Amino acid sequence: xxxxxxxxxxxxxxxxxxGLPEVSAIYAGALWAGGFDPAGNLKLSGQTYGAANxxxxxxxxxxxxxGTIEQDDCQNWDRFFSIxxxxxxxxxxxWDDNGQIDDxxxxxxxxxxxxxxxxxxDIYGFDLPTTPGGLxxxxxxxxxxxxxPMDGDVPFIHCADQGHWWVFNDYGGVHSTTNxxxxxxxxxxxxxxxxxxxxxxxxxxxxxxxxxRAVETIDSLxxxxxxxxxxxxxxxxxxGSFPEEDLVFFYNEDAVDGTNGCACDAGINSYCEEIPxxxxxxxxxxxxxxxxxxxxxSFNYTNNGALGIPPPGTTDPSxxxxxxxxxxxSNTDGSPQFTPDGALTKFAFAGNPGVDDPNDYTMCDGNIPxxxxxx
Length: 375
Hints:
alpha+beta, five-stranded antiparallel sheet, three-stranded antiparallel sheet, 6 helices, about 10% helix, globular
C-alpha cells in the first residue's frame, strides 16, 4: 500500500502547523503487475483497498529462487528499513578519516539489509537470504559485492535525506483482491525524499525492482501504479495526463476544494482555497525487449459508482482480466479509449487545462461532472 494507513489518506502536503488539521493530497495507492505464462494463462497481482477490507495479493518478504516463501519469513520481513543521511554521513566521515571504522555504528547503518551483511542477524534475529537479485542498494567501498559497514559500505539512497526500503511478493497466500494466479514476483522498493527549500522539498521518489522468481517466463508483462487521488476533498477532483512528459496529474474542479464551499462529505479535511496540483511522473519505466525504457505507456481511470452512474467500461475492476485490461490502457471491459473526435488513444484527458488549445481535451474543457476517480 502506498500513501495511506489503511483508513485515511496520508500523503500529507504541506506539513500541518501544530494544532491545525492535516490535509492529504492522495488517498491510497498500490502496485499492479500482470502478464501471461508460456501456455497463455494470465498471471496477475494487484491491490486497491486491501488493508481496509482484509483482501490482498501481496505479502512481506523476498522469494526463494524457486519462487516460494514460508509464513515465518513473511512475518520476519513485515517491516520497513529506514535510514537518515546524518547516519550515512557520520559513517562515511569515520571511514574517510583513516580507512577504518573507529566509532560505534548506528543501527540503521549496521542493520541495513544489503546483500551479505554479517551483522544483520544480530540486530533482527533472522538471516538474510543469498539471492542473485540482490537486496537493499548500497555503496560498496571495496567492490566485493557484499554489504559490510565495517569495510566502509553505506546504504545508497541517492544522497537523499531520508529513505525507506522494503520487499514484498505476490506468492505468500491466496489472491483475494484479483482472484488471479500469482506471478511469483518479488518487488523491492526504495522510497526517498530530500529536505531543502527548492522543488525537491515537494517531491518523493520511488525506485522499484521487480524480479520474476517463477521457473517459467512471463510474456506481455505490464507494470502499473493504481491510485485513488483524493486531493483534499474527494468529490471535486479532475485528472489529466501529459504523455510527452511521462506525467499524470490531478487538480481541483473549481477554485474552492469541497462539496459545499470548503466543507467536504464524510468530514474529510479540504484545501479550501489553497489547492495544490499533484503529479505522478515516470522518470524511467521498465525496459522493453530491446532495452529501451518504456516511460508512461498508458493512462486511464475508473469511477466510484456511489457518486453517479459511470460511463460504460469505467467501473472498478473485479476480475483478473479486468485488472489486466486497465493495465494495457483499455477500459475495464476491454474496450479501447477514444478522444472526443473518435481517435483511438492510450491516454485519457491528454492536455493542459490551463491553455486554450482546440487540440487538447481535458476534463475542464469537457465540463465533466464532479466525481471520485481512481487512476
